[in-house]
């Protein structure tokens, strides 16, 4: 017979007797997967009940091959297979080689059962099946479990085999430890001036910036000139200890106007216009917060403060041509 191309496509069945105990053997032609079931009787009804359980577990096969035993040729057995759509093939009389797969497994099971150790009958059968199902077959070169279950079950032999997962994890840990020893982790604080490596082209290799958000142990959000923000790894950052963000002629990235604006110096007059003092200046009391108005005194509780008026600074034209009017600067001076 041709080799079945799918698991449980064609099954071979036969009975075996070992020391007065009957066993029903069912073998899958594709994977050589073996099922052994102890039987108290070999009647057609008992055989049908066992096969019904196997069919519920693995599905209905396309073809079933058996010898000419009376339980297999009975009308009850024939009707059971016909009602389930299973094609029944009987071997010629006195020619067991036609059902050679089942006959070969009968001999293999008898030899393994005689050498098996176990306290009970079920224990011995389980040991035999576990061994046979996980032993590579000489015909397929694979274990029946690999072809039937599409995986290799875990056995005690698996404990001494090298694990791919443990091997990969071990190499990853070794690489991480080597990297940690060879390179130190650089950490930056929030709002710390830094230099960002320019990987987008340009004449400047390093761009001044400021840390505005810490994303992770080695990742940061950096604000660079133009109020732009970049997501940067610590490998592309160096501390800016030279104060490049405040150098003359460099744009102020912390400008509240959101653009590249050069600070405009504002002259604050040295003289102030003193106003009349209130009669309760010398009286201690809790300080209150009130809007600051140009030219009016501010009470702090102990020493009066006067606000000096300053001329409004002129507008500034940015490099993009936009006119920016800075906020009016109010200077506070303490009375002498």
TrEMBL record:
<feature type="region of interest" description="Disordered">
    <location>
        <begin position="274"/>
        <end position="304"/>
    </location>
</feature>
<dbReference type="Pfam" id="PF00665">
    <property type="entry name" value="rve"/>
</dbReference>
<dbReference type="GO" id="GO:0003676">
    <property type="term" value="F:nucleic acid binding"/>
</dbReference>
<dbReference type="GO" id="GO:0015074">
    <property type="term" value="P:DNA integration"/>
</dbReference>
<feature type="domain" description="Integrase catalytic">
    <location>
        <begin position="3"/>
        <end position="152"/>
    </location>
</feature>
<feature type="compositionally biased region" description="Low complexity">
    <location>
        <begin position="284"/>
        <end position="301"/>
    </location>
</feature>
<dbReference type="InterPro" id="IPR001584">
    <property type="entry name" value="Integrase_cat-core"/>
</dbReference>
<feature type="compositionally biased region" description="Basic and acidic residues">
    <location>
        <begin position="166"/>
        <end position="183"/>
    </location>
</feature>
<feature type="region of interest" description="Disordered">
    <location>
        <begin position="159"/>
        <end position="186"/>
    </location>
</feature>
<dbReference type="InterPro" id="IPR012337">
    <property type="entry name" value="RNaseH-like_sf"/>
</dbReference>
<protein>
    <recommendedName>
        <fullName>Integrase catalytic domain-containing protein</fullName>
    </recommendedName>
</protein>
<dbReference type="InterPro" id="IPR050951">
    <property type="entry name" value="Retrovirus_Pol_polyprotein"/>
</dbReference>
<dbReference type="InterPro" id="IPR036397">
    <property type="entry name" value="RNaseH_sf"/>
</dbReference>
